[in-house]
Every structure is written in C-alpha cells, then in structure tokens.
Write a sequence for this structure.
C-alpha cells in the first residue's frame, strides 16, 4: 500500500506521498505542496530537506556508516585504490581488469596540461591560496577543451571525466612547484596516480625523489576516504550550479570554491593551525575547549562536529590509525598528533561535546597525515578537492541523467518592508 503523510492546515487535510530509500529512510514528498496548498516549507541550511534521490553514496549519521555504491568505505580503504574507487563512483560498479586498465591508460594520456595554461599560473601572486588557483584553473579548462554536449557519446563523456581527474592532480602539483619558484615536474607514464602526484610535488632536478609505496598507499586511502559524501556543501554547490546547465568545468569549479570554506574542506588546514596555536600556548587544549563552549566566542573546535554524523565519523577512525602508521614510517612522531589525541580525549569526556554529539570528523586527523607526507598546510584542502572530484563528477552526472531534472531554485519567506513610496532625496531623514 502506498504510504502517505497527512498535513492539516486551517482545518483542511492534505495527503502527501512518501518516498522510501533502499536502506529504509523515509521522506515526505512535498514537490506538489505549493501547487496544492499555496504553502512552502522553511528549512534554513536544509538539515531536513532531501534535494534529490541518489544511488551513489549511503551514509547513516547515527550509526557512523558510509558506503559508496553499497561498498563500505572501510573495505574500499583497505582493498581498493583511488582510481578504482573513482571508477566505481562514476560508473556504479567495480571495473573489470580490462576496464580498469583502459581507465588508467586514459588517465595517463590526459595528464598533461596545455602549455598555454602555464602562463596563467605564472601570473598569480606567490601568496595566492592554492584553492583559489585551482578553482580558476579548473574553470579555465573549458577555454581549452570542449564542453560536453547534451547527447554525448559514452567515449566523449569518459574522456572528459578522465581529463578532469587526471589534470586536477597535475595542476595542483604545478601550483605548488611554482609557488616555491621551482621547475614544473611532468607526469610519468610508469607511475600510478598517487605515485605520480607525489613525484610531481617532490621530485627536483637536484634531488631526485623516490616514491615510497607505503606513502603512495597512504595517499590512496586519504583520497578514497574523501571521494564522496552525498549532499555535502560542495557537492550541493556542484549540483545547484550544474542545474543551470553550465559546463562541467564551471560546476566543479563552484564545488572547489565551496570546499575552500573552513566549515567544510578548509577545516583540515584550520585544524592544524589550531593545533599549532595550542602548541605555541604551552600544549594544553583545555583553554581552547573552554573557548569552543563559550557562546559569546565565535571560536569552534576545528575538526569536530558534523551536520550528519552524530557519532564518530567512520573516516576519522581510519584517518586516526593512518596518522599513527604514516608517522611511524615517515617522521617517528609529531607533537601535533599528541596534542590532537589529548584534545580528543578531553573533548569526548566533556558534557558539552557529549550533549551536542560532537565527535572528530574526517578533517581532525587528516592534516596530521598530510604533514607526515610532506604536504604543506595551504595545500591540504587541495588534497581534499582531488579526492572529492570523482564524487562531484558522479553526482553531476546523476543529476544530468535524472529524467526529473529541474533548475534548482529555492524559495524564501520574505520579511522585509511592505510596499512603500519612493522618497525624494531632500525628504529623506
Ligand atoms: N565546536 C564547538 N561547538 C560546536 C562545534 C564545534 N566544532 N560544532 C557545532 N557546535 C555546536 C554549536 O555551537 C551549536 O551549539 P548550540 O546548539 O548550543 O547553539 C551546536 O553544536 C550545533 O551547531 P550547528 O552549527 O548548528 O551545527 P551544523 O550541523 O550546522 O554544523 C559544522 C556542522 C559546520 C561542521 C560544525 O560542527 C562546525 O563548525 N565544525 C567545525 C568545522 C569543521 O570541522 N568542519 C568540517 C566538517 S566535515 C567536512 O565538511 C569535510
């Protein structure tokens, strides 16, 4: 029997259809609400609003579950690679050996950046934030490569997606090299996606870089953990901007801009800056925790809290273990990891954090992992963006393929002045 919900307004009852997802979540379908009742809903920040149906990622914030296309993120982190996970997200199924080889060959073939684009990099001020550079450069790709027409062949679609996934990594490494005034290192066909990135970042004509397979593996896991997260702020931005039928590059560029914010992907940089601040102030996290609890103080514990997870973020659990493992291998120790552990311990026993269901999120330990891999702090969010790209692409593709696609355009409840007459300048107070 079809499920319905009842809404009673001014004594009149309206029946609203219900929608059920494959994991049993239920939603009230209000798509005809205004037509039938003249009413709209108000949900600032959208915590109660489903903007779409999606078959890509499932998360349960109460139980701490995250799955891509049904596969638990823990299994993918343990057994997959970033390239394979990207394929899975975009195509819906794990690739066969041949499909994976073809995808990898395409990633290699499209890894170079048009030479003229290098001039763009040259003209950013040295202190420009790499996220600003990345969003501009991704948008600029449209000037060099064709837009995907509405009825594209499968091959054309695949090439455009691989072009983006491959070039974002090259462009990220170029922006780092140029910010240091170093020579650009080109991608190599004999290296894997992650190893290639590390090589482009750290190889130099005077100090050749040997990629450590464990480090490349850690980077794979880092990117897998960031690869998608259903309707988060940046993905919602990609879908919203994409709904105006802009080209893919522009929609992804919008996602990068959204990710930059410290309440979203920029939190990984903010966490390390906060830990450094604690270190400089003697290493005691107590005063920072007190500040985070003070309503008069805008300070928040960075890397804590999440709109959906009301328990420990499953990605943070893996990231915490990885921080230990990578540090042992690379540097032995990092005082920031000790501070982070102490901070977590104190916060998780504090009634404020318990009552507000605030736990470490993915960003809490990811900065420490990045530091151990030698990634500079201002590149952390770029690392997140590279990881999130397959998610953005698959969500964009799903929205474009949706037969019920519509331009996204929310409404509002107006609270300004009622109609009034224009006041000539000499009559104004
Ligand atoms: N430190 C202290 N208090 C917090 C924190 C925090 N990190 N996060 C939330 N709270 C408190 C708020 O003050 C509020 O308290 P109140 O109800 O007593 O007024 C309550 O918890 C709810 O906060 P909201 O801002 O309404 O929660 P929301 O779901 O909108 O925010 C967010 C989620 C933005 C992630 C928030 O937890 C935050 O600012 N965290 C720090 C930044 C961060 O780590 N961002 C990365 C998120 S993961 C990602 O995007 C990859």
């Amino acid at each position: 029997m079809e499920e319905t919900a009842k809404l009673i307004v001014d004594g009149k009852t309206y029946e609203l259809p219900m929608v059920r997802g494959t994991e049993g979540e239920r939603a009230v379908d209000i798509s005809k609400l205004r037509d039938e009742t003249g009413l709209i809903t108000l949900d600032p920040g959208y915590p109660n609003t489903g903007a779409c149906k999606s078959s890509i990622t499932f998360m349960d914030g109460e139980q701490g579950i995250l799955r891509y296309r049904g596969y638990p993120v823990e299994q993918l982190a343990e057994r997959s690679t970033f390239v394979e996970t990207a394929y899975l997200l975009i195509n819906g199924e794990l690739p066969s050996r041949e499909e994976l080889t073809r995808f990898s060959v395409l990633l290699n073939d499209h890894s170079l950046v048009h030479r003229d684009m290098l001039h763009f990099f040259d003209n950013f001020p040295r202190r420009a934030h790499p996220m600003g550079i990345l969003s501009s450069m991704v948008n600029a790709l449209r000037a060099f490569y064709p837009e995907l027409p509405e009825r594209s062949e499968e091959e054309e679609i695949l090439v455009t997606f691989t072009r983006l996934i491959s070039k974002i990594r090259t462009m990220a490494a170029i922006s780092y090299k140029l910010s240091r005034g170093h020579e650009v290192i080109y991608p190599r066909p004999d290296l894997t996606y992650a190893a290639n990135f590390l090589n482009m970042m750290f190889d130099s004509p005077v100090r050749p870089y040997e990629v450590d397979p464990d480090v490349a593996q850690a980077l794979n896991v880092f990117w897998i953990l960031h690869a998608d997260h259903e309707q988060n702020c940046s993905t919602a931005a990609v879908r919203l901007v994409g709904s105006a039928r802009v080209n893919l590059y522009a929609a992804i560029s919008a996602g990068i801009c959204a990710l930059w914010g410290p309440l979203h992907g920029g939190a990984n940089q903010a966490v390390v800056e906060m830990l450094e601040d604690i270190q400089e102030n003697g290493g005691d996290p107590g005063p920072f925790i007190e500040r985070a609890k003070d309503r008069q103080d805008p300070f928040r514990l960075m890397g804590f809290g999440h709109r959906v997870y009301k328990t420990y973020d499953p990605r943070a659990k893996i990231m915490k273990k990885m921080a230990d493992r990578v540090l042992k291998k690379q540097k032995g120790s990092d005082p920031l990891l000790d501070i982070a552990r102490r901070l977590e311990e104190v916060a998780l026993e504090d009634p404020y954090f318990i009552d507000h269901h605030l736990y470490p999120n993915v960003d809490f330990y990811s900065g420490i992992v990045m530091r151990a891999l030698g990634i500079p702090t201002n590149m952390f969010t770029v690392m997140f963006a590279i990881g999130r790209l397959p998610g953005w692409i698959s969500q964009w593709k799903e929205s474009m393929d949706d037969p019920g696609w519509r331009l996204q355009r929310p409404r509002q409840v107006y609270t300004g002045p009622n109609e009034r007459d224009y006041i000539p300048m000499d009559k104004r107070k």
Notes: The CA atoms of residues 116 and 416 lie 49 Å apart.
